[in-house]
Design goal:
Blueprint (H helix, E strand, L loop, with lengths): L1 H28 L18 E9 L4 E5 L11 E6 L2 E13 L2 E9 L6 E4 L1
Antiparallel strand pairs: 1-2, 1-6, 2-5, 3-4, 3-6, 4-5
Length: 119
């Protein structure tokens, strides 16, 4: 009986070691997933471009026409450009209706026709 238990113990020990070795090798041989190529990365969202249609210098606000583009969320700060040069910053306020939004002039001298770029 002592001899049989040694054989059984040896059988289970060698099979157990073989199983552990195979699992260990399988984990070591698993390669990490390949890096995603730059061309397949998520595109950067396009910037919304709108036009200042009315300026109220006394109350320091403007009306901006977004021409059917998505309107920014109230509180969004947008840069104002004239002929490609930044001339000011506005912050979208209520009311926002249809394709028009009002915005407070935060900085700069804004004029009708200026371009408003929201992130």
């Amino acid at each position: 009986m002592g001899r049989r238990s040694l054989q059984t113990t040896g059988y289970w020990t060698s099979n157990g070691l073989l199983t552990v070795a195979l699992f260990g090798m399988g984990c070591a041989l698993t390669a990490p997933p390949p890096a995603q190529p730059v061309s397949e990365m998520a595109p950067v969202p396009a910037m919304t471009v709108a036009t200042v249609v009315l300026v109220n210098p006394a109350s320091q606000f403007v009306v901006v026409d977004f021409r059917g583009q998505p309107l920014p969320v109230i509180g969004t700060r947008c840069d104002v450009f004239r002929q490609g040069t930044k001339v000011g910053t506005v912050q979208v306020t209520d009311p926002v209706r249809g394709r028009f939004a009002t915005a407070d002039i935060v900085q700069g001298a804004v004029q009708p026709g200026d371009e408003v770029r929201s992130p």
